[in-house]
Design goal:
The protein is mostly helical. The chain has 10 helices and no strands. Helix 1 crosses helix 4, helix 5 runs antiparallel to helix 10 and helix 8 runs antiparallel to helix 10. It is elongated. The termini are far apart.
Length: 198
């Protein structure tokens, strides 16, 4: 066999392996969104991807490796709003309204995944580890929205708490899904709450 044919076969084999890995990753993402990580088995992932369980384990030796690949793939397709531009908005109420509008639109697009992840967080250590970044992101936004308010003591604590509440996925879901408000109305109410808390 010529070196050229051998090289082609190696390249093709590597491409097929990468395609299989991607199929497993995408199947895991879909099942996490439909059922949640706590209710997604390796058997279900293998069936969805059209491979054997042993193939899943060959690509991902444990849950942590599979979940990390799944999370990375999903986040690349669903990036959260970038808070860096919000810091340039001088008026705290306008900054809060802008941030919540973008965040609530993100929640609407990613509702299925976050509902399942947050539901499974208390019972699944891998989910808890992966959600640390999400919680850190929310705390960073809280800092951006507190900046420039000139508050101290109890007013500062109340406002920080109101911002934290407003940023929560469960808050958005309660207002829009359980109470039937639009995203815009939910943003207005939470912006008012934050302003009134001072």
């Amino acid at each position: 066999m010529s070196d050229q044919k051998r090289s082609y076969r190696k390249t093709r084999r590597a491409e097929l392996e990468e395609e299989t890995r991607l199929r497993i990753t995408e199947s895991t993402v879909a099942l996490h969104e439909e059922r949640g990580p706590a209710h997604t088995s390796i058997t279900a992932i293998a069936e969805r991807a059209g491979v054997r369980r042993s193939t899943v384990y060959r690509h991902f030796p444990d849950d942590a490796a599979l979940f990390a690949a799944c999370s990375s793939h999903w986040r690349a397709a669903n990036p959260p709003p970038d808070p860096s531009g919000w810091a340039d908005i001088a008026d705290p109420a306008q900054r809060t309204e802008t941030a919540l509008a973008e965040l609530y639109a993100f929640y609407a697009r990613t509702e299925g995944m976050y509902a399942n992840l947050l539901r499974d967080e208390p019972i699944n250590a891998t989910v808890r580890r992966e959600l640390r970044g999400f919680h850190d992101y929310a705390r960073a936004i809280q800092g951006v929205l507190m900046a420039g308010r000139g508050l101290h003591g109890r007013p500062a604590r109340r406002t920080r708490a109101a911002i934290g509440h407003a940023l929560g996925f469960p808050t958005w879901r309660s207002l829009t899904r359980e109470q039937g408000l639009s995203n815009a109305d939910a943003v207005r109410i939470m912006t008012w709450l934050v302003q009134a808390s001072a």
